[in-house]
C-alpha cells in the first residue's frame, strides 16, 4: 500500500533497520557450557573394560553402542522389543514404532552394519539376548532393570522397559572413569552418536538424505545443528578457490 501511494515503507527506514539489527544481536546469546558428545573412542574404552559375563555391564554397553550406531533417542532405545530386531546377513534392522522427528516418513527402521570390532553392535546385541535368554521375535523388552541374587545377575522377569532415570544413571556410572568430567557430557545429546556419529558419517561422504533418514531428523536444519564440520571439510571451500 505504501508503494502504491508512492510513499517509502517505514520498515525500510534506516533507523528501523538499525533497531532491528541491534535487537537481533542482543537476543542472540553466546552458547556457554556446551555439552560434549561421546565419541567412538569412549565406547571402545568402555568395551575394553566391560566384563561380558556381568549382565549389567553387558546390558549397559549394548545400550550405548546401539544408541550411538543407530542415532537412537532414549525414548526409542528403551522400548525396543525382541520382535523389533531382525538379524540379517552382515547387518541388523531395528524397527522404530514411533518417531516424531521422521519427516521423510521412511525412517521407521534403522539398519546397522556388522563389524569385526569389539564394539560391533550386531554381535554384542546377539550376545546380550543369548545370555539373558531373550527369545527372538518375542514381546520382551531388550533393556530392562537388572536383578541380583548373590553373585548372579539377570534381567527382571517383569516385562517392563528400563526407565529414563535408570538409563541416565547407567550412563554416568559407565563413563565416569573414562571421560575427564562426566558433567560435561549430556545424555540427550548422545542419542549417543547424534553429534559425533553424524559428523563421522558426513565427513566420510554419506549423503545428506541418508543422514537425515538414519537420524530421523525433522529437517535439514536439525541435521545441521547435530553435524559438526571437520576442519578438513571446512578447508575444502577455500582450497577450491585456488588462491
From TrEMBL:
This is Tyr recombinase domain-containing protein. PANTHER family: DNA ADENINE METHYLTRANSFERASE (PTHR34605:SF4), PHAGE_INTEGRASE DOMAIN-CONTAINING PROTEIN (PTHR34605). SUPFAM superfamilies: DNA breaking-rejoining enzymes. It holds the Pfam family Phage_integrase. It comes from the Eukaryota. Keywords: DNA recombination. The lineage of its organism: Eukaryota, Metazoa, Cnidaria, Anthozoa, Hexacorallia. One of its GO terms (molecular function) is DNA binding. One of its GO terms (biological process) is DNA recombination. Residues 38-174 form the Tyr recombinase domain.
Amino acid at each position: 500500500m505504501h508503494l502504491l501511494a508512492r510513499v517509502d515503507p517505514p520498515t525500510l527506514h534506516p533507523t528501523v533497520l538499525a533497531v532491528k539489527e541491534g535487537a537481533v544481536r542482543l537476543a542472540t546469546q553466546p552458547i556457554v557450557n556446551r555439552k560434549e558428545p561421546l565419541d567412538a573412542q569412549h565406547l571402545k574404552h568402555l568395551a575394553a573394560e566391560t566384563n561380558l559375563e556381568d549382565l549389567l555391564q553387558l546390558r549397559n554397553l549394548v545400550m550405548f553402542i546401539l544408541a550411538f550406531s543407530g542415532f537412537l533417542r532414549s525414548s526409542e532405545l528403551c522400548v525396543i522389543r525382541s520382535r523389533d530386531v531382525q538379524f540379517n546377513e552382515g547387518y541388523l534392522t531395528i524397527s522404530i514404532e514411533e518417531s516424531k522427528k521422521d519427516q521423510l516418513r521412511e525412517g521407521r527402521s534403522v539398519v546397522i552394519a556388522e563389524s569385526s570390532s569389539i564394539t560391533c553392535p550386531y554381535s554384542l546385541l546377539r550376545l546380550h539376548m543369548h545370555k539373558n535368554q531373550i527369545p527372538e521375535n518375542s514381546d520382551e523388552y531388550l533393556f530392562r532393570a537388572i536383578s541380583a541374587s548373590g553373585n548372579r545377575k539377570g534381567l527382571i522377569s517383569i516385562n517392563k522397559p528400563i526407565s529414563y532415570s535408570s538409563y541416565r544413571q547407567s550412563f554416568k556410572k559407565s563413563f565416569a572413569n573414562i571421560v575427564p568430567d562426566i558433567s560435561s557430557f549430556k545424555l540427550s545429546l548422545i542419542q549417543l552418536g547424534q553429534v559425533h556419529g553424524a559428523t563421522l558419517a558426513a565427513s566420510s561422504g554419506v549423503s545428506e538424505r541418508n543422514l537425515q533418514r538414519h537420524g530421523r531428523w525433522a529437517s535439514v536444519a536439525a541435521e545441521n545443528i547435530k553435524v559438526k564440520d571437520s576442519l578438513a571439510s571446512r578447508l575444502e571451500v577455500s582450497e577450491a578457490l585456488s588462491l
